[in-house]
Amino acid sequence: MAISAGTDLSGSPAAEPGLVGVPGAPAAPGAPGGQQRMRLPRSPKVLIGLGMLVAFLLLAVIGPWIAPYDPGRSFSATASFPLPPSAAHLLGTTQQQQDVFSQLLAGGRSTVLVAFIAGLVATVLSVVIGVTAGYVGRLADDLLSMLANFFLVLPALPLLIVVFGFLPSSQGGDDVVIGLIIAITGWAFGARVLRAQTLSLRGRDYVESARVIGEPTWRIIGFEILPNLTPIVASSFLFTVLYGVGTYTALAFLGLVNPNHLSWGGMLFYAQVAGAEQSGYWWLFLPPGLAVAMLGTALALVNFGIDEFINPRLRTAGLSRRRARRAGATGMPRRFVLGVTPVVRGTAAAVPAGLSGGSPPGGLSPGAPPGGTAAGGAGPDLLSASRPRTRRRRPGSGQR
Questions:
Q1: Is the pTM of this model over 0.85?
Q2: In whole angstroms, what is the distance from residue 398 CA to residue 197 CA?
Q3: Within a domain: residue 371?
């Protein structure tokens, strides 16, 4: 490959997350030749999000095994109303006298599995279509871009409602089938982003070098372009998983998924049927609603952490002064300016030629370079020197 794995999207070597953008920061200890090592981000967003996400993944794996009761078991044949939380049932019972806590533990597997299947398949589709369209160009780019635009403007939820309406009851509870159907409507946005980034990468020097020496197209895409798209692909995957969580929960809440298939959206469906909100049965809808919200929050925090890690401006803005002083950085600005166009401002006003004894306009000494400072002090304001000043007239202050 013509580019190292520690190179970011702009082509510059990736710096250490804790010391990015700090002038005079020392190199990472133990790195040969002063080369900085790329370490995982230590932002609180990433740590909290990863902790919550690992907890949900662990819950999806062992949740049905550690459930205290069978989620479908009915504890009473005479009671017709949900029982509140108690020592026997930590989160109460449903209207059918089923343990809510057991359903919460068992329903997490279906929600997480469908979301990750949808995210994985949609990410693969977006990478294949977006990167191919951006690199190949011409007719292939036009056709693939038209396909992505078609799915991008297609209303996802009404389409899914129609598709799930034609599914047989045997497949209404199949997590793989549900995940594949959701992935069909979730790949277009990621493909557009990857196509745009590929268009900017295919003209880089290392891609041109690989093309000149006769590398095949699949190898250029796989070994020269895709490694530089890894952060965008990871962010797109997390965004699509988040989309899968919300879409699957919405479909189950609307009753389009097999009601006998346990999921957090199905629990919300049964809570709606029982009139839990009007009757005050908060234990029927609050636990699954909070579980969905916390899973979405975990994915969003990890996604924000990835954005902060790959974006130099966000990394610099998130660097605390205490960590910068500890790293030995001096002269940090009080506020990080995100502008990229420098403006030189001075105290000396522009002096017309002939009034200053032959000095050139702008108060510069003879031989001074353009934009330089005057011999007597600070340099002029480039913006004010390039256009005449106009005096503002107050409203209603005409001549008397």
A1: no
A2: 56
A3: no
The dihedral region occupied by 395, where left means phi > 0, alpha psi between -120 and 50, and beta the remainder, is beta
Class of residue 248 by CB neighbours under 10 A (exposed 0-12, middle 13-18, buried 19+): buried
Burial class (CB in 10 A: 0-12, 13-18, 19+), 204: middle
**First-to-final CA distance of the chain:** 78
User: Which of 19, 111, 17 has its CA nearest to residue 60?
Assistant: 111
DSSP class per residue in 225-247: IGGGGHHHHHHHHHHHHHHHHHH
Q: Tens digit of pLDDT for each residue in 198-250?
A: 988 888 888 888 888 888 888 888 888 888 888 889 888 999 999 999 999 99
Q: Is 303 helix (H, G, I), strand (E, B) or coil?
A: helix
252 touches 164 (CB < 8 A)? no
Burial label for 253, CB within 10 Å (0-12, 13-18, 19+), is buried
- Domain tally for the chain? 1
Closest C-alpha to 352, from 337, 362, 342: 362
Q: CA 347, CA 31: separation in Å to the nearest integer? A: 46
Cβ atoms within 10 Å of 233's Cβ, excluding its own:
20
Helices and strands in the chain: count of H runs, count of E runs: 15, 0
For 133, the token pair is: 């369209």
Q: Do 349 and 389 form a contact (C-beta atoms < 8 A)? A: no
CATH number at residue 222: 1.10.3720.10
CA distance linking residue 183 with residue 156, whole number of Å: 10
Q: Find the domain containing 204 and state its range.
A: 44-317
**Is residue 191 a part of any domain in this protein?**
yes
Give pLDDT tens digits for 112-151.
999 999 999 999 999 999 999 988 888 888 899 899 889 8
Domain-located, residue 195: yes
